[in-house]
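ESCALATION

Customer reports they have been waiting on this structure for their group meeting. Please prioritize. Original submission:
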Amino acid sequence: MQFFRDVSLRVKLLGIYFFGLILLGIVGYGLFIYTEVQNYYTDKAVFSSQGKYFQEKSFRHMKYTMDLHGILTRLYSTAGDPSKDKENIVKEFISNVLILSDDSYSFAIFDFNGSLVAANGSDFKKLLEASPSNRTKLNAMIKKAFESRMHGAFVEFSSHGKNVSYFINTMYFEPLDYYILSLDKTQRTEENIDSILQEKRMRIIKSVVICLLLGLIATVVVVGILYTYLKGMTGNINRITRSIEDLGSSGIIETKIEAVNKDEIGRMISAFNDYLQKRLNMEQFKQLIEEDKNIHEVYVRIFGLLNSFGFHDFAIYEVDEAKNRINYLNHEICGDTCTLEPMPCSEDILISPEECRCKRLAQTVFGSADFRSCPRFLGYDKGRKHMCMPIIIAGAVGEVVHVTVKPENEEMLKRALPLLQDYLKNASPVIESKKLLKNLRETTLKDPLTGLNNRRFLEEYTEILTADAKRRQKNIGILMCDLDYFKKVNDDLGHETGDRVLQILATIMKGSVRSSDIIIRYGGEEFLIIIKDAEDDESIMSVAEKIRRNMEEHEMRISPTVSLKKTLSIGVSIFPKDTENFWQAIKFADISLYKAKEAGRNKVMRFTRDMWTHDTEY
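Update from on-call: job pushed to the front of the queue and completed.
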């Protein structure tokens, strides 16, 4: 039974069809053989009985004919002159024959021309009068008797519009040149044959009816089997249809359809279940990234997704349209644990996004050592193959997912491509919304003029910064910077020149500190610099002095005809060395800044305790 479930649908239907044919054949031929055997024995008994009957009947008829011949011979031999006494001989012959008084037979004497000479009844006369063809048949029998002296046969005569068969013996009496014809009047032969044929017809009708009944039963059995199977098949198809309808209405189904068989329907159910599972996984993945806090966590999940597909060498590039550059995100996402080193593509794509073929074409790019589709991929000489898939954000390429594999894993890459593209396409709107939120947040945390973090950023970042410093027992250097005589620039040269000076100052500061340090536009021409993981006072003062000196030495070219130099005053405090309160440490740096201003400007002033004249904390 399990084998029948597992074979293909075509084999099942053919099997049921041939089973029906075989069943019908067995029933039909079995009944046919049975009927023929039964008919054989029945016909054997009937025809054996008929044979005996015909033998006896023929013998009696022949004896009767021979007796007639004997009577005529005796009368002929006792006649004086037979040639003259023909009529008397015939009359005496009739009289003598009537003594036999056998009503089963009729006899007559004919001459060679077929003329009736005498008869013991009207049977022959009626036959002659009934149809001219009857005389022709009698003449034919007379001629046969002339040739063989004696002849017997079944002859079919016409009588009152129907055919009647008689057995007639014909004997030639040569002395008188007469022919003695005797006819069996019983007609039992015809009746007996009709009875046999009728019985035969009834047996045939009976056999046909039984065959039809058995064929009907066999058909019902086959149709029942076929109906049972088709009912199960249609049930599976209906379940799939309902699941597809549910999928169309709700978008997701968590209940799988049970696949009992392993035929085409079973394989279709298994494939549908696989599709549902992939769809469910995709929806769950989308739900997870929707619930993630920021775009960074989404990128981490995409890394995990690539790992789940069996890939180990991959990278994510982020396209920054505003800055016209591409960012390599592996370091940002998971540090050195999952970073391809060196970067799989040339660094040219980072500063010129159009060099990235995937970004430029906005379509998936395949490449191998034999087919070097992207000239910026660096792994061709090592025999590597790669695939780059774009993530489309608002009609443009937002990210590029790059996967590198060895040649033997190319098929795995191609098999994974459609599903992986579906995942990325499904994640695209979530990535877009997360990036939009990130940009909106950065807008609120960034100073639009200089691009530096603003005071709100500091307010949100303070707890994280101070907790990390305390946990690692590290100092934080706080530099409060203020341009000297900045108001004069605005008054003399205009606010546009003042804005340009602030932008140049921001650039000088960024070039003077580490990328891990934080520069904040604190307000107006005041800037706050947070030096993370400060070693000691000297290192912090050295950084502050470097910033002051770089600003002092830099000649700012505002326009082709206008250039100027500006100086910077800086106040320095250290958290938590000077105070456990971070905001008080900022106040200390601000106080030391004003002390630097009082000391003549263009100076770096370290906070000392005597500068704080209040008894309470800030």
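Sent to customer with the following note: The longest strand covers residues 162-173.
Escalation resolved.
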